[in-house]
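User: I'm putting together a small comparison set for a docking exercise, and I want a reference complex before I start. The sequence is below, and the ligand is uridine-5'-diphosphate-xylopyranose. Could you produce the 3D structure with the ligand included, as structure tokens?
Assistant: Of course. I'll restate your input first, then give the structure tokens for the complex.
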Amino acid sequence: MAPKITVIGTGYLGATHAAAMAELGFEVLGVDISPEKVEMLSAGRVPMYEPGLEELLGRHVAGLEGSSGRLRFTTSYEEIAEFGDVHFVCVNTPQKHGEYAADMSYVDTAFEQLAPHLRRPCLVVGKSTVPVGSAARLADRLAELAPVGEDAELAWNPEFLREGFAVQDTLHPDRIVVGVTSERAEKQLREVYQTPVAEGSPFIVTDYPTAELVKASANSFLATKISFINAMAEVCEAADGDVVKLAEAIGHDERIGKKFLRAGIGFGGGCLPKDLRAFMARAGELGVDQALTFLREIDSINMRRRGQMVELTREALGGGSFLGKRVTVLGATFKPDSDDVRDSPALNVAGQIHLQGGQVTVYDPKGIENARRLFPTLGYAPTALDAARGADVVLHLTEWQEFRDLDPAALGQAVAERRILDGRNALDPELWREAGWTYRALGRPRA
Ligand code: UDX
């Protein structure tokens, strides 16, 4: 019989994983400590913007018209322990307040809540991003607390999904990595991932520490690629070179590759920055901090971009103070196709200019509500055109398709000065210049 699946924590990762598991044909029960979230998901609604997720939920949540009925949600750990053969732990591990290390309290609590109810053989699968060594510790804790003892096994199965592509990445992962200590665990996970494996997703079996490290090193590599090209942008700025051309040219080398070489105001979000820092903290604990010292530089190149965007704006406005200047910010989320504003470079730049006296008006296709909650003193507008009215300068800070589709001539009618600064190197400079705009971008020549 197909294993019954539970998902612990129904945030970004968990809600998507639960819906994807139902799509793959499994009976799924999700658990969350928040009754509001459970109520919302049970009605087929998603607490965040993620393309395709609401449709996927709609197809499977029990009680919805025309659904498969395979997906339900609850707040009871006892219920999921009775129900499940495979329990996926999908709670988050934010950065600890005032420290680089990851806050493991949600993961620890999930295990403490689940384990005492485990009375039948099962596999607990950690998907959360954790410091290396956590799985071994949690396996011991599981054996200690579960009434079924060693028949409650642990596996570690990191998640690589990208926001904005969460559904696609979960249903068609580019690789599946499982850290296991027994053949039984491996077999069970092969069964769970049978469909994507049959489609060609590589299935990589490792021990616990390697599985944990795969996630940390993949994110570090991606962050390094972005900061590398941003460092090149700094040099291009000083030498009057063009970082976009440079990225295109080096990207043709297959060993380098074209992806993740978009220079701009850098990376943000709920994953890359905090995972990088947690990795450094963990390396320090293991006595190999020197091995990851370079990540400090990756982090600081990245954070410097935000300040450089503020300075480019100041320069575009003729230098001096932002007092009385009207600044339009296009984009609030940390990346397009998401409503996530956690550690968003765009909002950070908007906030800095606002705090220095600029009159900042922000527009974002999906992120305004979240942005307003985080930064209530910024101005917000319902459309790009409204945001641009009377602007002395327009900043393009998150590369939504909607902004690439803007008509420079129409926007030009609304602003006071046709000045646009592209913080993502995603607009077509020619198009804007032809419509009479002064176009500038980080790492590119002026004219
Ligand atoms: C990332 C990883 O890609 C994913 O595998 C992991 O599971 C979680 O962290 P995500 O946070 O969704 O996913 O965003 P990603 O698409 O990686 O982008 C991160 C940031 O880098 C964004 O702010 C984006 O704008 C920026 N970025 C990306 C660049 O500045 N330049 C690039 O070339 C690519």
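The mean pLDDT is 97. The first helix runs from residue 12 to 23.
User: Thanks, that's exactly what I needed.
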